Each structure stands twice: as C-alpha cells, then as structure tokens.
C-alpha cells in the first residue's frame, strides 16, 4: 500500500507538471530597413516582464523581482532577418524558455550594438563602444528596441511571437559649462593607438570661487574617482524648491523624500564651496567610459589599454594647464567610493610619487584572497563552497542584517545573458576585462567558467601579480613603503552589501604590521554600515555618502602642511 501511494503521487506530480508547462515557445526578433540599411553586429536581448511600468528593459536586475532575460549574439544582422529566441537560448533567471510559467507577459527586445575594433595587439574584437551614456545597454544612443507588447503564453501549445525593434535611442546632449563647472575632452594618443580608432578622455572640473579674480593663484587638485558621471554631481547653485515632491521612498535607507535631501546637500555644498573659509582647490571627475564598462579602473590593462598612463600623463596635465593646477605630486589627492575607492588606492599604489594621499571608501576587492566572499587563489569554484558531500551557494549581496539578496552565480548568469566575452558592461565582467590577460580570441581570459564558476588558477595568478593591491604592497613594500607612508586611508562599512570589508580586514592587518617604514595609515569601519560608508561616524550613511567632496578636506590640508617641500606654493590659493 505504501509503495502504491508513492507511485500514485509520482504520477500525479507528472500530470500536474505537464498541465503547467509550456510547449515549444519561440520569438522571432528583427528590425526594419528604416532603422538600418547596413548589417548590424551586437547582442539581441529579449525581456519578459509581468508589467510594462517601467518598461521591461528597465526591470532586469539582481533583485528577486527581476524581469526574465534572454540573449543572443548577432553578426551582420540584416534588416528583416529574424533572430530566433527559443528553448536553446541562454536566459536569466530562468535558464530556458521551456522553464517559463504559462501566463500573461509583456515582451520587449533590444539590440545592443557592437562595433569592430582592430587593436594594436593584432586582435580584432567586436564591442559596444560607449556613446556618452556610460555603458548602459538600456539607453545607449543608437540601440534599437521594440515597444512593449502584451502576450499570453499558453499551456502545452506551440507558439511563436514576432517582435520588431522599430524604435531607436536618441543621442545625448553634452553637458554645458557653468560658472563653476567646466568640461574638458581630449583625444588620447595612447588610447587611440591601442584601440585603432580615435579614443577620448574627459573630465568635469569644479573650479574654486574667485578663480577669475585671482589669476596669480595655482591650486591643489583632488580627483574624485567613481562611476561614469554624466556631469559634475552633487553641486547646485540653487536650493531645491520648497514644494518639491517628497513622496519618493528609498527602501535601502528606509526614508521618504530622499531626492530632496540629495538636492539640499548639493546646494549646501555650493554654499560651502563659495564661503570665505573653504579651501580653494580643483575637484575633478573623470570620464573614461570604454568598450567594456562605464570607467577604466584608471590603470593600464591588456584588454582596455593604457588608461592609467593616459589619465596620468595626458588628461591630468591638460587639466592642470587649463585650470592652473600646481602640477606637483604633493598637491594632488585622490578619493572615491566603491569602484572609485579601488581606483583611488590603485592610483596611489601604481603612481606613488604622483599623489600625496588617497581616501578609499568601500573599495572593490583590494585583496583577492578575500575576493568578496571567497579566496581566488585557494577556492576552486566562485559560485559554490564545495565539500565531499555538499555544495553551498556563495552569497553575492546582503543587507545590514545579513539577509541575502542574490548569489554570486545568479549575478554572473545575468551578466552572461547580457553579453558573452566579458561584454555585459557589468561588475564581474569589468574586473575580468581589467585584470585578465588577453585570450587567444582577443577577449579577456576567463577568471572562471561563467556558467559553472570553476576558477582558472593560471589567470588568478596573473591577477595576483598585476592587480592584487595587498599582494603588490606586501611584495614591494621595500620600495613602495617610503613613497606611500602616511598616504593611505581606507573606510568601509562592516556590513558592506558586497562583502568588500573582508578584503579591507586583510589590508588593515598588513598595514599595521609594516616596518621600515611604518605605513602610518588609517583604516576605519562603520558599525552596521552598508555600501558607500566613507568614514564619517557622526552621520547616517545616506548623508555621508553625499559628502565626499567635503569629508576629507581637513586631512588633505593637514597633509599639505606637513609634506609640502620647501619653497612650494602653499599661499597663492589660500585667499
């Protein structure tokens, strides 16, 4: 009787599964000749969502509420030619169309365009060049897309849906100069040579009050590293309207009216910047979006090219020339958070004589033996902690209570659906593009199998020698130590959403142990603070993250007073 019930239960489960499963479903995606008379290369992205507000393309994310995504590479796709997305197409979070539950959906397709680069190293690659949007496939000018259309996927029947990408993202306007914010763009000789086509670097420069009235003054410079800035952020000459809508709600901070708070902070910064007591200096946000990401990580890379040298020896001198920078290492500082935190520390490590201090907040992994939640050198798999009888998924994001939002595997599979060959324009792929050697096909060598998570130890060792900042400091302390002592400041929340505090702990242990010379460094943690905590224990994180441009000023001035060489200009800019 017991076994009969088990057999009956199994048969019932099979019947119920058959009733709820879909039949062979496919989508044919195309674009009309009115959108392009020439064949196009790129990645076709098909999105399914349960609502069209916002559009399905805006709903793809790491959140549990994410829309469903499928992706296919296309080469020389002609107008009218149909790209078929079916059960064999790779998807996220469901792997296949056959896993989709029957029901009503909104469908939308996007063609993320690629162009061909013939690089100096002899490789020819197809990549999505940034078009002024900061490597965002949703909004990149020239990308084709379809209007959302409602469909119904039925149970058990064969269905085919046609999707036509007859819309196109418009070009973006360049930011305009104001009294205090200036914009600069140069063609980089180094990057143009590497990529085999004109390549540019840009910057948004905040100039001090009294700049025109004091032509004799030359200024220290602070580079505020971070993700792609469409314009200088967090500075406004006008206060927020008194009747500004405050119904917006930010779940992360559990607060209403955050947009008005942001606007008020921007205006408060303007008032400080123009006050008589605020130090006069230049603050720079760099634009270095590239074919892989919204910025270059400000270092030289086999796959991205010599961005570190191009920024250091082409862009920075031009900024200092145009805006009367002092142009000496003792008068240069760098700071930033997250990606910008890693870049700030990397700039100090790779160009130790060129900067007089870095302030690295919540930096991307600065030690790869704590590469978020795993050891890149000892662990065999990035997605799972593996034992003889169990595989435990590795968490990818958490909140301050430790509740997991997404796993490392899920985030990487979303990236894989967005783009093969490290072309997703997202986080794990850019680390791979920056840190990896070039593979035989011209694209970055995989640090791990994107599908399974199996780590390649050969690539990991390359990463270690070239970009593991802790390893480099430890290895080269005899020569680097005297050049960076007193210059390193690191801040991180101890509940960082991406587990970035793990690597900071290891860096702190090393910096405390240094001798001949001592590091004379600063490492601080925010209790229960999440991502972007930048060293201010007196303010909630949602406020301190808006104050990068004022938070480190006192420490910068103290450092200048202590280290400026004899005869240095420490007065012309203090008016």
Automatic annotation (TrEMBL):
Superkingdom of this protein's organism: Bacteria
Residue ranges for the region (Disordered) are 125-144
UniProt entry keywords in alphabetical sequence: Signal
Q: Which residues form the signal peptide?
A: 1-18
InterPro entries to which the protein is assigned, alphabetical: AB_hydrolase_fold, Mycobacterial_A85_antigen
Q: Which PANTHER family match?
A: ENTEROCHELIN ESTERASE-RELATED, IRON(III) ENTEROBACTIN ESTERASE
What is this protein identified as? Answer: Esterase
């Amino acid at each position: 009787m017991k076994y009969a019930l088990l057999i009956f239960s199994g048969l019932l489960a099979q019947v119920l599964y058959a009733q709820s499963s879909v039949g062979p479903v496919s989508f044919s995606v195309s674009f009309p000749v009115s959108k392009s008379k020439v064949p196009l290369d790129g990645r076709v992205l098909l999105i399914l969502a349960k609502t069209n507000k916002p559009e399905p393309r805006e709903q793809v994310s790491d959140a549990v509420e994410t829309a469903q995504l499928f992706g296919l590479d296309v080469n020389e796709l002609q107008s009218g030619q149909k790209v078929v997305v079916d059960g064999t197409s790779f998807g996220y979070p469901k792997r296949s169309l056959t896993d989709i539950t029957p029901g009503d959906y909104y469908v939308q397709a996007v063609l993320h365009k690629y162009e061909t680069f013939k690089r100096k190293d002899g490789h020819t690659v197809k990549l999505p060049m940034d078009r002024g949007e900061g490597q965002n496939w949703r909004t990149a000018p020239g990308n084709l897309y379809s209007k959302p259309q409602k469909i119904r996927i039925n149970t058990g029947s064969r269905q085919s849906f046609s999707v036509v990408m007859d819309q196109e993202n418009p070009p973006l306007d360049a930011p305009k100069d104001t009294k205090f914010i200036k914009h600069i763009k140069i063609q980089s000789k180094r990057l143009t040579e590497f990529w085999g086509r004109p390549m540019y670097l840009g910057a948004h420069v905040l100039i001090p009050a009294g700049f025109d009235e004091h032509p004799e003054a030359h200024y220290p410079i602070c580079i505020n590293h971070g993700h792609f800035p469409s314009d200088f952020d967090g500075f406004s000459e006008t206060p927020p309207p008194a009747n500004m809508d405050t119904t917006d709600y930010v779940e992360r901070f559990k607060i209403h009216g955050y947009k008005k708070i942001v606007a008020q902070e921007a205006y408060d910064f303007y008032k400080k910047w123009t006050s008589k007591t605020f130090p006069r200096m230049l603050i720079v946000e760099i634009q270095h979006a590239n074919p892989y990401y919204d910025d270059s990580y400000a270092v030289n890379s086999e796959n991205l090219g010599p961005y570190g040298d191009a920024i250091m020896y082409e862009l920075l001198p031009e900024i200092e020339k145009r805006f009367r920078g002092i142009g000496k290492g003792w008068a240069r500082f760098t700071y930033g958070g997250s990606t910008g935190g890693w870049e700030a520390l990397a700039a100090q490590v790779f160009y130790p004589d060129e900067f007089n201090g870095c302030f690295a907040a919540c930096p991307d992994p600065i030690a790869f033996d704590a590469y978020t939640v795993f050891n890149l050198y000892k662990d065999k798999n990035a997605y799972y902690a593996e034992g003889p009888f169990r595989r435990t998924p590795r968490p990818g994001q958490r909140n301050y209570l430790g509740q997991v939002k997404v796993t490392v595997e899920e985030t990487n599979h979303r990236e894989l659906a967005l783009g093969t060959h490290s072309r997703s324009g997202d986080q794990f792929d850019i680390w791979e593009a920056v840190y990896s050697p070039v593979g035989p096909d011209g694209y970055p060598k995989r640090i791990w199998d994107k599908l399974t998570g199996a780590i390649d130890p050969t690539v990991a060792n390359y990463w270690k020698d070239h970009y593991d900042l802790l390893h480099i400091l430890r290895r080269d302390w005899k020569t680097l130590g005297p050049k960076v002592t007193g210059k390193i400041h690191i801040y991180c929340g101890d509940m960082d959403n991406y587990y970035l505090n793990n690597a900071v702990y290891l860096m702190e242990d090393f910096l405390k142990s240094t001798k001949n010379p001592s590091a004379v460094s600063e490492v601080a943690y925010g209790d229960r603070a999440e991502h972007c905590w930048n060293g201010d224990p007196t303010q909630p994180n949602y406020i301190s993250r808006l104050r990068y441009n004022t938070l480190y000023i006192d420490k910068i001035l103290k450092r200048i007073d202590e280290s400026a060489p004899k005869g240095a200009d420490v007065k012309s800019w203090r008016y």
